[in-house]
Write a structure and sequence with these properties.
The complex is a heterodimer of chains A (86) and B (310). By secondary structure, chain A is an all-alpha fold. The relative contact order of chain A is 0.06. Classes of the chains: A mainly alpha (86), B mainly alpha (310). Chains A and B meet through helix 2 and helix 3 of A and helix 3 and helix 5 of B.
Chain lengths: 86, 310
Amino acid sequence: MSEFRPPHEMHQRRFGRNVGVGLLLAALIGVVFALTVVKVTRGDPMQDSSWSGGTGRGDGVLVVCSRAVLSLVLRADRIWRHDIGG
Amino acid sequence: MTDSRTFDVVPEASFNDFAQLLKPRVMSLVVFTALVGLLVAPVHVHPVVAVASILFIALGAGASGALNMWWDADIDAVMKRTRNRPVPSGKVQPGEALGLGVALSGIAVMMLGLASNLVAAGLLAFTIVFYAVVYSMWLKRATPQNIVIGGAAGAFPPMIGWAVATGGVSLESLLMFALIFMWTPPHFWALALFMKEDYHAAGVPMLTVTHGRKSTRRHIFAYTVLLAPVGIAAALTSIGGPFTLAVSIGLNAWFLIGAWRILQRDEAMAEADKYAVEKAVFRFSLLYLFVHFGAFLVEAALRPYGFGGW
């Protein structure tokens, strides 16, 4: 059975910084979500049509970027668990 | 027992130190001028798109600030005013500043492209490269006209705001660019006259050092003379109107009087009253830009009610 461990010294030291980054990321998600709602409800393309020659193929840019960010987060999480989390 | 944690004496960077890398004061000017460029454009922009675009323009400006602080850490360490910046003070490592600058540049340009259009994103990318590479890395240490060229980077935001709305560049947005471009040299040289930074020790060829203070006073006057027609021309375009024209004439006349007074003085007179005129002109130059762009905004706000505009 797992037990509560005292927070790592580094986490205490960097608490403010981590909270700040967390809030910024949350704000970015909020902005992207609001943009998505506006663009979808207005039927806009997700980017300028010149990106995809107006075929809609360029819509993949958002998906590709989201996947890249997600894989980076997952990798960072694995590294963190391995190196610090134990 | 020995304590191996000697690295604890290295100051730990706080969130605020990283925020300082983005030069928040410069960002506030960028936000204001980009917002004006966006709001005075003849195309309506959805408020969410407008807010997001301004945020990403500000982020791009901040990113170029971080790149500038990474590159100029050696200069900043020498000068009193900049000695406590995050990189020279050791709170943030140069690599961290570089990483933050590059990452935020990429995010800002990509997100502005997705939020608005490629023209705006391209202009933002050009601005970041211009400020970080052309100005910081190349011309700042190479020519006493560094302030003039660096001013171009600060002049792009209203053009980017305009491009967010219209997807292009026009006479109006070029004149807004020119207004900040011509305003920057007299603004900074007035500051350089009374701040007396140790540019020589830092290896920055500031006009006050390379050509002397008398020449700097002449340059301030010359650029202020060149600034006036730009402001008045902008007031005569579709973003201006009788109100903006009246404001522009008043502001430019007052700025010209100030620049003339600076020209008529020498160092002995300036020392005697502790650079009172130079300081007053510097303060007024800040007001000049704020009020001039504010006038464009007022004109745009009045237009739907049948007032404003030509």
